[in-house]
Amino acid sequence: MIAVAEPFSRSTRSPRSNGRSRPRTLPRAPTWRTIRVEGVEARYLWAGSGQPVLFVASPLVLARTYLPVVRALAPRFTVVVVELPGAGGSDRLDQAWSFQRYGAWTIELVRRMPLAAPILVGHSDAAPVVIEAARLAPAELRAVALVGPCGACPARSTLRVVAARARDALGELGFTFRMAPHLVTNALRHRRTFLDHVRAAARVDVASAARELRIPTLLAWGDRDRTVPLACASRLGREIPDAKLVVGSGSHDWLVTAPDAFAATLRRFVEESVRRRGSLSLQR
């Protein structure tokens, strides 16, 4: 079920910027690193200091796509953004993995990294990976955050999802132009698996897997998301025993286009919800 300030209506709204600028310097500059897990080498971005937050990057873009939100979170969190096998600078795959296999691989990654019970974040088509990881090994994680999660709606045709994604792209042209080279890089480097990722993201339905989650879960949605419409949030939230929905101002990629708002949302979620699972070391 979804926990909100009132019985489920539309949702809690994410905080907006107060208009004051704040430093964008990082307490620890972002660095690129690699790690080998189950015989596959993966590339990841590491920045900041504090409670660990591990982003699973969408397989269609790159870790650096998320740099705006990394910068927003790094003053208070250790932020890691991993590129899955078959995406970005990580190893190529001969054939695409299932979300279940990616989830198992992600848990093994968590075990090998120097991160104590991270908050696991999945955006868009990375969200089903996070759900599978949390379903398999909830004790390894502090909480999960699902941002515009593919699979929240019933399975749809690939064409319909691509058309909806195009509408989102037209509504956020600045981000689209910045992100386009990342998309092309993936399509060229991972030709064998790129289209498989697109088809899998369109056809997945995570409702049954989400029903097995036993971990605090943040559902973060853009109020103008056309790729995964906000109407699907209640469908997914009803399946998760401990879920909280927050709606941000933006479309499918609002965590990147409105990074300060997302960072405030995640921090508040940590303070209000995750503390129930134990003390968190938060820098103030």
Offer a quick outline of the entry.
This protein has helices at 67-73, 99-112, 127-136, 158-171, 173-189, 194-203, 207-210, 231-237, 254-257, 259-272, and strands spanning 12-13, 31-37, 40-48, 51-56, 77-82, 119-123, 143-147, 217-222, 243-248.
Write the layout of secondary structure elements.
Layout: E1 12-13, E2 31-37, E3 40-48, E4 51-56, H1 67-73, E5 77-82, H2 99-112, E6 119-123, H3 127-136, E7 143-147, H4 158-171, H5 173-189, H6 194-203, H7 207-210, E8 217-222, H8 231-237, E9 243-248, H9 254-257, H10 259-272
Parallel strand pairs: 1-9, 4-5, 4-6, 6-7, 7-8, 8-9
Antiparallel strand pairs: 2-3, 3-5
Helix pairs in contact: 1-10, 2-3, 4-6
Sheet having the most strands: 9 strands, mixed
The rounded Rg comes to 17 Å
Shape: globular
Helical content (DSSP H or I, runs of 4+) = 25-40%
DSSP strand count: 9
H and E order: EEEEHEHEHEHHHHEHEHH
Q: What portion of the residues fall into strands of 2 or more residues? A: 15-25%
Quote the distance from N terminus to C terminus.
Answer: 31 Å
Number of DSSP helices?
10
> In which order are the strands of the major sheet placed?
1-9-8-7-6-4-5-3-2
Which structural class is indicated by helix and strand composition? alpha/beta
Low-confidence stretches: 1-11, 17-27, 279-284
